[in-house]
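Sanity check record (used in CI):
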Amino acid sequence: MRAWRVHELGEPGKVLRLDTVDRPEPGPRQLVVRVVGAAANFPDVLMCRGLYQVKPPLPFTPGVELCGEVVAVGTEVTGFAVGDRVLGGSSLPYGGFAEYALMEAAQTFPAPAELDDAEASALFIGYQTGWFGLHRRAALRAGETLLVHAAAGGVGSAAIQLGKAAGARVIGVVGGPEKAEYARELGADVVVDRWSEDFVEVVEQVTDNRGADVVYDPVGGETYARSTKCTAFEGRILVVGFAGGEIQSAALNHALIKNYSIVGLHWGLYNAYDPAAVAQCHRELTELAVAGSIRPLVTERLALADIADGVQRLADGKTVGRVVYTPSA
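Expected output for NADPH:quinone oxidoreductase family protein:
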């Protein structure tokens, strides 16, 4: 099979190499799938650079999220059969940027028929992160105001749709007019282009100086610091990640004075500590997809040969929406 592999760490466009390798064999609790869709995510970029918390041994194939057709089943796997269409996370070093990938059965779920292969491949990480963050950690309620940073990215775009599905008013912050249009298409009620507008001022204006009830922050750094200035009384700031590259320190005296909560979210830990909740999350996401309340908005469908370029453009912040490898592209 053909697979993009990282032999040395660095920028994706330089270190990804298209190799011909043997197809993986499943372990007792694993599945081998023919990849029909693999969404590019920022963790793929960080793994290529060696900066992600998960550091697979070299060489490895990135592609942490995918949709596939089961072609082989481990001896201890139940509930899946050859031919099933599934989605979930890959089992590195055999990621989704290849013709075949390896998946752990415990992190594999049926793919909704209402979504095509590319859309289904993007239903796992971003939407599960959003669901756990908004519902389990921040307890978002209907009628509240949700501020989403990096709203045109993978986790941000999912948070917009999940916020709207929960009945919240959603303010999306993006960089540039093209991304602003994408956030509007996702359903954001208010879109802030940070290149030309101050999101703090906009939030205060549209909430009559009350502020945002929930802040969804996958950026960190200065974005987090400025978000504290427009967080409502008893608001919740969700710390989702640090895509901006800076891990800020929280001013706890400010949280005390303004009565807001700083809430951490590491979605991956739920797979270890509460896998039943992960399964329940997938069931609820499937119901939302069936109802048409959520749908990954795929803007680029890449052929296998174009993956390295696509992941590099994601790394450079030049992509809008979900970028997905699909063999039919």
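The mean pLDDT is 95. If this sentence no longer matches the regenerated tokens, the check is flagged for review.
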